[in-house]
From TrEMBL:
One of its GO terms (molecular function) is nucleotidyltransferase activity. Residues 56-171 form the MobA-like NTP transferase domain. The keyword DNA-binding does not apply. The keyword Hydrolase does not apply. Keywords: Nucleotidyltransferase, Transferase. It comes from marine sediment metagenome. This is MobA-like NTP transferase domain-containing protein. InterPro entries: GlmU-like (IPR050065), MobA-like_NTP_Trfase (IPR025877), Nucleotide-diphossugar_trans (IPR029044). Pfam families: NTP_transf_3 (PF12804).
């Protein structure tokens, strides 16, 4: 059975509540199966509702200077990568597919180029002087009830966000354990730029760019969840 989208689950819950209100008789085995399925879906909806209502903060303030002329007139997240969609548009589509609708973008470099509808924007006008973490805190007022943050210029699969959402931890970071293979034949983003993590059991005990890559367990890929 395919996974239900969050909007589908809301509709299913309405149907289920209507059936309960009207009342029903258990008339057949098949009918009972359908009712049981509705009950399971509604339970899953209620269990995941708080997580699905989390805000997503996309950090998109940087200049993307490694791409040189490609980002001279357009921020890196707005570069097209597939089917006429930009990196950030594709990311937003995936976020919405997994039920995350409350999306925020922190913009800086060429901020007026970001015109995606139904998005709340925060502006980091000091993007040249500060860094990714400081950009994130321009949206600090949106963090109170828990949030997911993600880089705007990374290409993620839907599974990454699904795993982050489903993980039963208050704080959860996406980590690539086979990160070294991704750096082969790269020269514009050397390994000393990787945000490396040290893991003990299921916990991240250290994260830094300034460390010996030989003793670390993976690379932070730029997506994290923080519950309230």
């Amino acid at each position: 059975m395919p996974k239900q989208k969050y909007s589908d689950l809301e509709e299913i819950k309405k149907i289920y509540e209507s059936v309960k209100k009207i009342g029903y008789k258990k008339t057949s085995e098949k009918f009972n199966e359908h009712i049981s399925l509705l009950e399971r879906i509604v339970r899953r909806y209620e269990e995941n509702k708080e997580v699905r209502e989390m805000k997503v903060i996309i950090i998109a303030a940087g200049m993307g200077s490694r791409l040189k002329d490609m980002t001279k007139y357009l921020p890196k997240p707005l570069l097209e990568i597939v089917d006429g969609k930009s990196i950030i548009e594709r990311e937003i589509d995936i976020l919405r597919e997994v039920g995350l609708e409350d999306i925020i973008i922190v913009r800086g470099y060429q901020k007026d180029k970001f015109t995606i509808p139904n998005i709340k924007y925060y502006d980091n006008d000091e993007y040249i002087e500060n860094n990714i973490l400081e950009s994130l805190f321009y949206a600090e007022e949106a963090m109170e009830d828990g949030f997911i943050c993600t880089y705007a210029d990374s290409v993620f699969s839907k599974d990454i966000f699904q795993k982050i959402l489903d993980a039963p931890y208050d704080i959860c970071l996406g980590v690539e354990p086979k990160w070294k293979a991704r750096y082969e034949n790269r020269n514009e983003h050397p390994t000393d730029e990787a945000e490396l993590v040290k893991i003990k059991g299921s916990e991240i005990v250290f994260i830094s760019k300034f460390c010996n890559p030989e003793v670390y367990d993976g690379e932070f890929i730029g997506v994290a969840k923080f519950t309230k």
